[in-house]
Each structure stands twice: as C-alpha cells, then as structure tokens.
User: Which sequence fits this backbone?
C-alpha cells in the first residue's frame, strides 16, 4: 500500500477514531528488493504524484514528517504502557508471595508505591476502562488516542497539516513527554533501587512448601 510502517500497538488496545498508519511514501524514485531462498532481485520503480493533487513537494513532505513524528511519539508511549504492564505483573507476583511476611514490609510498600505511580502514568496515557469498541462512548479518550486521532485527520488527503494541527501536536506531545519522564524516572532510578533492596534482603527466588516424605 506504499505506506511506511505503522505505529506500535499493544494487546487489548481500544482507540476511538484513531490511526497508527504510517504516512504514504512521497512521489519519487524507489527500489524494491525481493529475496527468496538464495536469490535476490532488485528493481527500480516510480511513485507518481496524483495528477488531481495541487499539493507541492514541500507540503507533501510536511504531511509525511508530521505523521512520522506523531507515530514515533505514540509508539514510545505505547511501549511505556507495555513496559508498565510487564513490571506490574512482576510486582504483583512479588507482593502476592510476601504479603503475609512482616519482615518484607518495606519492600511491599516500595512495590506498592512504584505500582501506584505507574498506574497514574498509564491512566494519563491511555483509557484503561476501554474493553470494546463501544467503551470510548462512555469514557473520555486519553493522550495517545488524541495523538493517534490527530494522525488520522492529517492523513486524510495529501495536504500540509494546518496550524491548528501543529498546535495540537505540540501540546499533546508535551503532555505525553511529561508522563514519560515520570515513568523513565521509575525505570532508571526507582525500579533499580527496588531491585537493590530485594537483593539486600536476600529474598529467595524459588520456594517449595515443606511436605512429609512420600507425599
């Protein structure tokens, strides 16, 4: 379809009127390479501008760059959500294992604090109440949905983004970056500190319940 790669999604993602499609390749000369077995064939081809379009090369480039930048930011945020859910799963495993151990109180409180901040970030980036395509009618869309919606609007036709689109992109990107900065602080400082606490506490990785011989 002559489009660049789409943005990153994640399991169970539900967005309202939003697109992660990459921008269309601009008119120009390209090469296609086909590999099969030990053979490789490369051929040139030309993408022509739609003769009905009045857009200039500069305007098409502006649309292309806009969509690439939006997709890159949405992908970064969605990767953060994937990472958050991975970390949360590990923290939940840890806390379920040691929740009755008073000697692990400090570790459990640290795990809870990390999860609380991650939940706040995730809820700002994505509407976690969404389970079906109808849910966005009941729950407000969040930051990555807004950016991906902007991507869909700008991708209609072959026009340069409007000044309003640029303003919206700037504002939304700033908000996303604020949330990502919070998560990256956790990732680079708090989570390693938690791991150090776990190591210092000499927490067993593998535990088996004691049973009587023969059972």
Assistant:
């Amino acid at each position: 379809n002559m489009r660049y790669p789409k943005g990153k999604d994640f399991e169970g993602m539900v967005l309202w009127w939003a697109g992660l499609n990459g921008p269309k390749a601009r008119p120009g000369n390209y090469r296609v390479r086909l590999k099969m077995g030990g053979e490789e064939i490369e051929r040139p081809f030309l993408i022509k501008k739609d003769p009905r379009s009045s857009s200039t090369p500069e305007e098409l480039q502006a649309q292309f760059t806009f969509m690439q930048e939006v997709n890159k930011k949405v992908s970064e945020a969605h990767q953060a959500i994937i990472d958050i859910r991975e970390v949360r799963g590990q923290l939940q495993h840890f806390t379920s294992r040691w929740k009755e151990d008073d000697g692990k109180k400090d570790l459990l409180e640290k795990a809870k604090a990390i999860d609380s901040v991650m939940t706040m970030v995730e809820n700002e980036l994505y509407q976690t109440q969404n389970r079906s395509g109808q849910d966005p009618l009941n729950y407000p869309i969040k930051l990555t949905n807004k950016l991906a919606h902007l991507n869909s609007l700008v991708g209609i036709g072959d026009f340069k983004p409007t000044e309003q689109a640029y303003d919206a992109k700037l504002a939304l990107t700033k908000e996303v970056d604020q949330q990502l900065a919070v998560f990256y602080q956790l990732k680079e400082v708090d989570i390693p500190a938690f791991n150090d606490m776990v190591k210092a506490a000499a927490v067993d990785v593998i535990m088996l319940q004691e049973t009587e011989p023969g059972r």
Summary: The chain is about 55% helix and 10% strand. The longest helix spans residues 57-98.
